[in-house]
Design brief:
188 residues, mainly alpha, Tetracycline Repressor, domain 2, elongated
């Protein structure tokens, strides 16, 4: 049984890499399986269904984003923490992970099971990592929920607009303004 668990984890990681590079939209088990060196039947042997596989890929993708946040060194201030979090959130790997989340939403997966539970859990881990980083930088626990709600919503909106707005200087100004706003919330 342990071998099957290890194989399932290996297939899940490979499938996640595939989906991060090819997307969830139009995902078909046969091309996925061929790319990772197995068959669609073996995928269904290790995963109860395509939904189970996709839910697992969403978990792994989110875990990677959370790990990137948790790997950040402590920021010197709340304002700097926002800028550091933006930098890690827009890194190539984290950006791909966020795009997978957006694709899942676009496909309507996030409103039905098993995705509702997976995304709820993933969001709790993501927001927890953001909150912990802000608290370590000086935000109080009483203010962090408000700060993280604004931060998470703003990051999602900005990341959705990234491919549409090539003006890097405008985006830097907006992220700087966001950092100022979060720092104000943390101090008030």
């Amino acid at each position: 049984m342990a071998r099957n668990t290890a194989r399932r984890e290996e297939l899940a990681a490979q499938a996640t890499d595939y989906a991060l590079n090819h997307g969830l939209i139009g995902l078909s088990l046969r091309p996925l399986a061929a790319e990772i060196g197995t068959s669609d039947r073996m995928l269904l042997y290790h995963f109860a269904s395509k939904d189970d596989l996709v839910a697992t890929m969403l978990r792994i993708s989110n875990d990677r984003s959370v790990q990137a946040v948790r790997a950040l060194p402590r920021s010197r201030s709340v304002r700097a923490a926002v800028l550091d979090l933006w930098r890690v959130s827009t890194s190539e790997e984290s950006d791909l992970c966020h795009r997978m989340y957006v694709e899942a939403a676009a496909l309507g997966l996030l409103g039905r099971e098993p995705y509702v539970s997976v995304v709820r859990e993933a969001n709790e881990h993501w927001v927890g990592a953001l909150a912990d980083h802000l608290v370590a930088a000086g935000c109080t626990r009483t203010r962090v929920e408000r700060a993280v709600t604004l931060l998470d919503a703003a990051f999602m909106g900005l990341q959705l607009d990234l491919p549409l707005d090539p003006d890097e200087s405008k985006r830097k100004r907006v992220v700087s303004d966001l950092a100022d706003a979060i720092a104000t919330i943390a101090q008030s």
